[in-house]
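Quick one: C-alpha cells for this chain, please?
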Amino acid sequence: MVRVWVRQIGALLVLSAPAAASAQARQPYSIQASALYTTQELGDAGSVGGAGVEVQARFNPGRFSYGLGVQFSHHQSGDQSLDLSGVFFEPRFAISIGSDRVTPYMAGRIVLMRQNSDFVVVPKFSTNGFGLGLGGGVLAHLTSRVNFDLGAAYLRQSFSDKQFDDGGEVDFSPFNGYVAKAGFTFGFGTRSSGGA
C-alpha cells in the first residue's frame, strides 16, 4: 500500500519539471490557514466526525508547489475522544483552465502523526503514526495576494498499538480519514519573471 502511494506522489513530482508559468499563487511564497471538517472511519468503532485547523507555508515556483505545515483535529463521541495532530509535506500540481481568477489543483500529502486518546475503558494514552493522502481543490484569486482555498482529501492513517501495565491493549488497525477544508492563502515576495 505504501509503495502505491509513493509511486503516485512520485508521478506528481515528475509532472513538476520544468516549472510552468501557471502557478497556484501569484507570489513565490505563501502562508495558508484553513478550517477542517474530518470524518474518521475507526473500523468496528464506527465513524466519528470532528473539526480542526491546519497552517502551512508554501513555495510556489510554478505549476508545482510545495507545502510544509501542521494539522490538528478533535473527534468526540460521547465521553470518548480522539485528537490527531501532525506535521506534513504537501506537493500540489496546478491545472490550467485558461482563467486568471480560478486555479484547480491536485495534491498529495505525507504526514507524521500523533494521536491522543481518551476511550474511558482504558487509561488516556498516545501513540505515533503516519498518514498518506491524495486530494484536490480550487483556489479563487480574490486579490493579487489573497486567495480563497476550498478542497477535499482522503488520508490513510496508521498508528502503533498500545499496551498497558495491567495487560490491557488497544490495537489500531489502519483507518481512513476524509477531510473537507476551506481557508485563505496570503502570498508574498515577487517573481523575477512570468508567474500567474
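The CA atoms of residues 29 and 59 lie 5 Å apart.
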